[in-house]
Amino acid sequence: MFGLPGLLCTIDQKGAAGDLELPTQAEYETQASVNIYGPKGLRRYLRLSLALSRSRLNYTYAVHELVMRDEHRPDGWEEWASLEANPSEDPPLYCERPGRDIEAHADGFWYHVLDGDAEGTVIHAMALRHTIPSVGWLILRPEQKRTLDVEAARSLGIPDGPLMGELKRGLTLVVNGKTINPDQVLLPPVRGHRIAIMGDSYDSGSLIRLVKSLFEQGKLTNIQLDVLVHETTFQNSMAAEAIQKGHSTPDRVAQLSSDLDVQLLILTHFSHRYSPIESGECNVETISSAAGRKKEKPSLQILLDEIKSTKFQGQVILADDLALIRVPLVPK
């Protein structure tokens, strides 16, 4: 959360705003170049952060807030801060455009927060258990149409050109007296990816309930996720401290991943008490303290080992800044 105002400024200062699809002059007063989604309070937070730092953005943005009900918020949250922006004391910025207030469904979930972009992606959201309002996102990609295996078609004597297109459309051809069916040259259909990205949480059980709800509604064919991105802040021996601070341990994440048949688990949000993994052979790194004394700092290998010692059978990756991770295609 602290990095979001800076990220918006970086987009501007690095010239990346030039890559955004800016609204026309007629649309400028109402359209946003950047749309941001998050829990109630995010609109006020960004508005105050940008205003107090006098950050002038050369593009427009809108914040779409998930309206939190009592069961979504941690106890005593109202004693800390108001989630509502005061129109008179915190007026909208010149670069801010109106955002949506998105109400939860009767079962507590926010369905179709984003419903069918240009590619047909649908995003649902759920509240997570943390010390401040926190949400998770379930991203459902559409099924990919069958694509043409060009080399297979060529091997059957199909020349490049219109005939390739007819096969791709599912038409049966007769070429040089030989019948060629589309199934001979079309690759199998690919199921759309299912990706869950969780915010800070010590209990993400709402993800299981959401996935089961979509399955019961016929929106999913089975209970399985291709990717789960989840925090793992502390090791299992620190479970009490983790819950107190609103964070997760490997055992909790592994159980969640097993229940959802996760194929690829990406762990994030590691405590600074852990050092990066330099070697798979070492769980402890010796570092120098400010006083010049040597002390041992545990390695992230501990978290990885604890995940791998559970019944979870999927692939596990420790996230790293700017890492790009390819998600394998899933046959339908």
UniProtKB/TrEMBL annotation:
Molecular function per GO: 3'-tRNA processing endoribonuclease activity
InterPro entries, A to Z: RibonucZ/Hydroxyglut_hydro
Any one of the GO CC terms: nucleus
Identification of the protein by name: Zinc phosphodiesterase ELAC protein 1
